[in-house]
Amino acid sequence: MKLVSLLSVLLTSLVPCMGASGQAAKPAARSVKTSKPNVIFILVDDMGWGDLDSNWSQQKLNGRTVERKNEFKTPALSALAREGIQLRRHYSAAPVCAPARASLLLGVHQGNSRVVRNNRFDQPIEDSHTLGTVMRDAGYDTAAIGKWGVGGGGQSHVPMTAGPHQRGFNYFYGILDHLAGHFHYPSESRDVFEYNGYASNPEWKNIKDQVPQTAYSTDLFAACAKQWIVDQRKSARKTGKPFFLYLAFPAPHGNLVVPGVPYPSGGGLKGGLQWVKKEGTESVNTAFDARAEKNKDTYIHPDNSRFPNDVAKRHSTMIRRVDDAVADLIRLLKDLKIDDNTMIVFTSDNGPHNEGGSDSRHWHGAQNPQFFKSYGMMDGIKRDCWEGGMRVPTLVRWPARIPKGQVSLHLGQFHDWLATLADVAGVPVPARSDGVSLLPTLTGHADQQKPGIVYAEYNFAGKTPEYKDFLGEHKGAQRGQQQIVFVDGLKGLRMGVKDADKDFMIFDTLNDPQESKDLASSKPELQARMKAAALSNRRASLPSKTVFDSALVPAVDVKGTVSPGLQWALYEGDFPWVPDFRQWKKPASAHGVTPSPSVKMNGPAKRGVELTGYVKIPEDGAYTFYLTTDENKGSKAFVRLHGMELIDADKTYEPGAEVSSDLGDRKNPVYLKAGLHPIRIGYVGNSGTASKLVLKWEGPGLSKQEIPASAFSHGKESR
After folding, report:
1. Rg of the chain on CA atoms, in Å
2. Is the distance from CB of 43 to CB of 100 less than 8 angstroms?
3. What percent of the chain is predicted at pLDDT more than 70?
């Protein structure tokens, strides 16, 4: 093909920066800080939507009012709700911990998670952008404290190649493997690790022998978090850096293990939990309490001692201990005078559990979610894709920006947090992220919120429990391969999928959270669109094979005629990664049409280009795509077909190398129907010399070759 100049434009001015949705930003809740906020992301383990006391207020907002006969208080979390926003329709990525944590950290839903899906516990997440890398590269000090579970080792029986220190966190203190989360006195039987990237010779260390066996995990990790914040603020006087803390408590996961002593009085700098060095050990002050050894695993919070069974007392006490730790942390922020400009996110990894756990030393039976209606007004628990297994308690507080007392029913999911925190930190959302920034919703500008996607898939050979308050058709429902997709605000759910063409049940979960009325028979057109959306927003993940992997992704209908070539937009900037330009706040400097991606691109030295349109697939079948950029330093690219991740030439890419749509050396073809398929290509380059992309394909009747310009077009997609 003859090479022509694509971007021979002279840039003379830029349009002023707009808000996150392209509109001018409204005044904030309080005085907007010019500095980046600190961020604390608190993730608990197996706490149900109904375990959060504030979710039971204003039940008219929940779509269904139910009686909660037994309740326990979470006063600090209730205060967090009053002082910020409740996200009552926020979804985990999956109804079990490992895939949920992988998607949260990577900012992708389960359809685009390459390694961790289903029950792949302790498998190392891929080397891609994470909450840690994005915040670190945005100028934050980063720490992960508590449970990791996606780094290797443990049940995966593979080397640790994705520890927190290898995925963007400067500091880590906690437990690495999944099963360690069952042991709430972790050093009794499991390893405890520390990594300090600020040390002169950083090393990954097993410090189990330095942790007293009387150290209760919630106390241990909360005290470590407090001390890390104190130390970081001291160093911040010189560096000026804000902090990002990912604090992952194992509670209230089974086993149902409680502390040995009451929560220390006070809080903050001088009270509450404190970090203590004593006799060659470092731990929380409660571990050195004289009563700790004698009374280990016996303390029940006085408010919860009235419950008639030990299991209920323990479950509620475990959550109350987390609640006390949250109050302690907020007191610390106030003592340090950083509370106003610190954003706190609190959520759980999935719905409530009914498990006893793996710690034989501390066996107290299995949790019964029915007692507290831990699933709220919904049906389903952990490992169910019914609402009760997927919808999770979520609160966000940021006094400087988030108005008090909000309750949002906006749909959101775990992969939205990477986009949101990137927005908060003032850096572009990575193109690989499936999420959208929730900042407009959080800050009271829901009218400016970009729509996102809610998608999940999970395979587990079990059944929904036959709880008495669940609907008859839900009791004992076969789980198997489950899949969720939302279209037009309605939830499509299919369970026990053995055929990719199986119909979805369709529910209006805003007004029918129990999923009592299946709307599928009245919405045949929506059924077809849900099936198309379910297939076009995911890729196969080897070795986790599903019935969806070889199903042909439908082509799209296009309104009117299409025109030759791809549309392009030029953005000026020194981009650290390929952005999702749809969420970039600065407008494009120039627009145009190019015959194909392989046309040379000239322009400013530091730039990004987005190419959009369609690629015409000539015949039904399996296709592999290949991409090569120029060899210019800093050249990167990312390609999506529909909503699926097609080619990643971003974080670990070497300019000039060829990468494919396969998973490394494992074949992973894309199955497509003949016709037009939407394509989106992002490119960034930091060199003043001309740059180019070469996109190739191979498929039915096609040897590996460059995609001809005649295959590319642009137009307006119909619904």
Report:
1. 25
2. no
3. 94
- Least Cα distance to 117 among 95, 84, 137 occurs for 95
CATH number attached to the domain at 563-714: 3.90.182.10
Q: How far apart are CA 59 and CA 55, in angstroms?
A: 8
Q: How far out from the chain centre does Cα 473 lie?
A: 31
Q: What is the DSSP letter of 303?
A: G
Task: Convert the pLDDT of each residue in 409-421 to its tens digit.
Answer: 999 999 999 999 9
Task: Tell me which residue of 678, 544, 702 sits closest to 621, measured CA to CA.
Answer: 702
Task: Check pLDDT > 80 for residue 601.
Answer: no
For the chain, domain boundaries = 40-96+207-242+251-453, 456-537, 563-714
- Using the CB atoms, write b or e for 293-329: b if 16+ within 10 Å: eeebbebbbeebeebeeebbbbbbbbbbbbbbbbbbb
DSSP states of 86-124: EETTEE-SSSSHHHHHHHHHHT--TTT-SS--TT-TTPP
Q: Are 715 and 593 in contact (CB under 8 A)?
A: no
What's the angle, vertex CA 401, arms to CA 395 and CA 405, rounded to 5? 45
Burial grade of 464 (CB within 10 A; 0-12, 13-18, 19 or more): buried
Contact 145, 273 (CB under 8 A): no
Q: Say how many residues make up the chain.
A: 719
Residue 343: per-residue pLDDT: 98
Q: Which two tokens mark 706?
A: 């460059």
Check whether 29 has a pLDDT greater than 90: no
Secondary structure string (H, E, C) spanning 207-235: CHHHCCCCCCHHHHHHHHHHHHHHHHHHH
Burial of 27: CB neighbours in 10 Å, binned 0-12, 13-18, 19+? exposed
The pLDDT assigned to 692 comes to: 83
Question: For residue 3, is pLDDT > 70?
Answer: no
What 3-state class would DSSP assign to 410? coil
254 touches 182 (CB < 8 A): yes
Q: Which CATH architecture has domain 40-96+207-242+251-453?
A: 3-Layer(aba) Sandwich (3.40)
Q: Is the pLDDT of residue 19 over 60?
A: no
* CA pair distance 99, 509, nearest whole angstrom: 23
Q: Does residue 24 surpass a pLDDT of 60?
A: no
Q: What is the pLDDT of residues 558-572, one digit of tens each?
A: 988 899 999 999 999
Q: What is the pLDDT of residue 16?
A: 26
The four Cα atoms 79, 85, 88, 89 give a dihedral, to 10 degrees, of -150
pTM metric for this prediction: 0.94
Q: What is the pLDDT of residues 191-209, one digit of tens each?
A: 999 999 999 999 999 999 9
More confident residue, 601 or 139: 139
Nearest 5°: the CA angle 371, 374, 375 is: 125
Please, what is the angle between helix 217-239 and helix 310-335, to 10°? 10
| CA nearest to 68, candidates 375, 515, 405, 386 | 375
Contact partners, residue 13, CB within 8 Å, separation at least 6: none
Instruction: Tell me the three-class secondary structure of 520-556, residue by residue.
Output: HHHCHHHHHHHHHHHHHCCCCECCECCCCCCCCECCC
134 φ/ψ sector (left φ>0, alpha ψ -120 to 50, else beta) = alpha
Q: Do domains 40-96+207-242+251-453 and 563-714 have the same CATH topology?
A: no
- The pLDDT tens digits for 286-322 are 999 999 999 999 999 999 999 999 999 999 999 999 9
pLDDT reported for residue 565 = 97
